[in-house]
Amino acid sequence: MNAPQSRATDSFSAVLRRTRLAAIVRGPDADAALRTVLTLLDEGVSLVEVSLNTADALGVIRRAVAEAGPTAFVGAGTVLTEDDVARAREAGASWIVTPALTESVAASVRVGLPVLAGALTPTEAVAARRAGADAVKLFPASIGGPAYLKALRDPFPDLPFVPVGGVDLTGAEQYLAHGAVAVGVGSPLVGDAARGGDLDALRERARRFVALCAGETAGGRA
């Protein structure tokens, strides 16, 4: 029996645009990954993706949703196939992330799951949006950096780009300044937490990223 979906597509898009941050969790320790997801949610990171190449990723998603509640935006990442979509949906994932334009994009749209579809070139970015993606995951963003995003936005100012890949605090600030709707952040935010590392350090990094993406400065709102 399929798990009920807790969020509508427009709600996902609204949260993405408001918080401008999605965390990416992957690691070899399922319990540590779960603790990482729950810590990020607790620190105000509203969108947390669990990559399917995480140990027992579906179990992590299922347990995180059970513990954080059905309104938590826990997503599944590295989703490649229609079967991946079905299994992620069954586990309770409320949004999907793909690394490329694969069958998983159409499968997500068919079942009503918001999808962040991976693309790099202008052709791929347009194709992702036409396929029904809620936003375009610019991946790997590190290849071209913020300057590449700026170049893409010149002809496509209305495409919602989410740069992913090597995005640290400085990069996040630059991407957002160049018009990214949000940024996806993995190791610069998660660090070693998903491998059993320091959760207090994770909390501190999360607070810095949340504040930056919210447009806050040391003296308040930017």
Automatic annotation (TrEMBL):
Highest taxon, organism lineage: Bacteria
Keyword Lyase applies: yes
TM region(s), chain numbering: none
KW Nucleotide-binding (keyword) present: no
InterPro entries per record: Aldlse_KDPG_KHG, Aldolase_TIM, KDPG/KHG_AS_2
Keywords: Carbohydrate metabolism, Lyase
Pathway(s) served: Carbohydrate acid metabolism
Subunit (UniProt): Homotrimer.
UniProt record similarity statement: Belongs to the KHG/KDPG aldolase family.
Record-given protein name: Bifunctional 4-hydroxy-2-oxoglutarate aldolase/2-dehydro-3-deoxy-phosphogluconate aldolase
UniProt organism field: Streptomyces lancefieldiae
